[in-house]
Amino acid sequence: MPTLRKRRTDISGLDEVTHGGLPLGRVTLLSGSAGAGKSVLALELLYRAAARGEKGIFVALEESPEQIRANGASFDWFDPESENVAFVHAELLETVTMDGDFDLNGLLAVVGAKTEELGSSWVVFDGLDVLLAHLSNESVGRREVARIRNWITERDQVGLLTAKSGAGSGAHSLPFLQFAVDGVIRLRHQLIDGSAFRTIQVSKYRGSNHATDEFPCVVTSHGLLISTRGQGELDHLQSDERVSIGLSELDELLEGGVHRASATLLSGIPGTAKTTLGGAFVDAACRRGESSLFVSFDESAPQIRRNLRSVGIDLQPHCDSGLLRMLSFRTRSANLERHIEEILGTLDRIEGRALVVDPISALEALGSRHAARDAATYLIDACKERGVTLLLTSLRNRPGGDPGPAAIGISSTADTWIHLEYLDTGGERNRTLTILKSRGTAHSNRTRELLLGKAGLELADIYTADGEVLLGTHRWEREQRLYRERAARQHALRQKHADAMRELRELRRQLQTMADQRDALEKRISSIQTSWEAQDEQDRSFEEMQEARREQQKSAD
């Protein structure tokens, strides 16, 4: 069996969804409501192919070529000097179309001559439904669509038709169209709670596997971007390197920090210092010399920098040096996909290594919880693929109790989850920090008190007494009492030490006195012994002298 030949599209995500591109020698229908992006997608496909040296023809059945070129000029991929794209103006006059008695042989002859002249392999019939609507009945329309399909197959073209469908439903004014072609790509443009969303779905692709899900997409100046949410099989970059989260005491609780290219989630109610910790995170990254991005929703960058200076974190020098880029979005200013693509696009342009999104839970205001979770998961995956260390903050609306899942439902996706909370004790509200999880890390499971001051952030141990948690003033009073008790113990020990040293000195003095007395006594004994020996010597000498005299006397007698 011959394999299906495809031509790649070079449109972000579309080759992945179609498993390699669009079929050669077959017809693909691009359908969607007004403003869904059918004509723009068809035109981009031609110019992307033209950039590779492949040639194509755009048959304009609804707008003039001048209007189409003007529309394309706002995109980066449009090349007004390209000789690989030709236009055929095929709008029919009203007098010709009123009776509904015509066929497309003449048009196809013109397009065929242009195809041979250019040597093209792509052809677009834009707004075919406008033309077919003037035909007398559906059977004639089927005949003309079959005529186009046979024409494309015989000339081995990548054939594209665009046609309108009803908003949301996908129903066509000419329903037979979707059955008469080889592939159908549906584009939708809808409003959800006042926010615009675009989606794309390959609902039909004869002879080829393809992704059948409906994927979010966004039209940017760079072209159509389709968020496929990444490959089905995860294969993220892994690193054993630890990077600081911006607070040394917290780094110690995490065995030196979080893993590079990991995702950290900070959850908590308003005022628990989520933004402050995010500022500390990018400050630490910039101090390491890493390009960083701080994204905030509904709070301006200058205001964030001012507020962070009050706790000893000054981000302005990093902004001035170019190491830190700060983006501030109004949440409702764009849809989910445009926000995510803007974040990733900026991250790529600055070659960022660290990213903070504050708060990621803002995305939930732009669609369903499911869509927001998908967008956040896609962002996490994209950052891990780029080797970017990511910190997300997530807002909880109610204090106290079990932290439960994070507001946007990504607590299971994050590698490290840190929860911030208020505890009311003794008429005070005090911030606490707990590490709920940190994959691959033997982290502390104890709750700490998070202290904010002009000198910066600090973590303090929480005391319990008689089952009561001590924070704030009560913790300070407990610490002071413990300090006094320790000082008293130290004073008592010092006193005992001094008494023992005094006794030792007295004993040493007594020992020295006794030693002196011993030495004097030994000297007396030695002196007496010497005198004794001298007297004995004298006595012996005297006796010897007396003995000599007696001997002399005897001799005289």
What does it look like?
- The protein is built from 15 helices and 24 strands.
- With 557 residues, the chain is α/β, with parallel strands linked by helices.
- The protein folds into 3 domains: 6-226, Rossmann fold (3-Layer(aba) Sandwich), CATH 3.40.50; 242-461, 3-Layer(aba) Sandwich (Rossmann fold); 464-518.
- The strands form 5 sheets. The chain has a 9-stranded mixed beta sheet with strand order 5-4-6-7-3-8-9-10-11, with helices on both faces.
- Helix 13 runs parallel beside helix 14.
- The chain is elongated.
- The model is unreliable at 93-100 (pLDDT under 50).
Fill in the keyword field for this structure:
557 residues; alpha/beta; Rossmann fold; 3 domains; 9-stranded mixed beta sheet
Q: What is the highest CATH level, the class of the largest domain?
A: Alpha Beta
State the helix count: 15
Instruction: Please state the CA-atom Rg, rounded to the nearest Å.
Output: 45 Å
Mean pLDDT: 85
- Describe the largest sheet: 9 strands, mixed
Q: How many structural units, i.e. domains? A: 3
Fourth CATH level, the homologous superfamily of the largest domain: P-loop containing nucleotide triphosphate hydrolases
Please bin the fraction of helical residues: 25-40%
Uncertain segments of ≥5 residues (pLDDT<50)? Answer: 93-100
Q: Order the strands across the largest sheet as they lie in space.
A: 5-4-6-7-3-8-9-10-11
Distance between the termini: 169 Å
Instruction: Tell me the total number of β-strands.
Output: 24
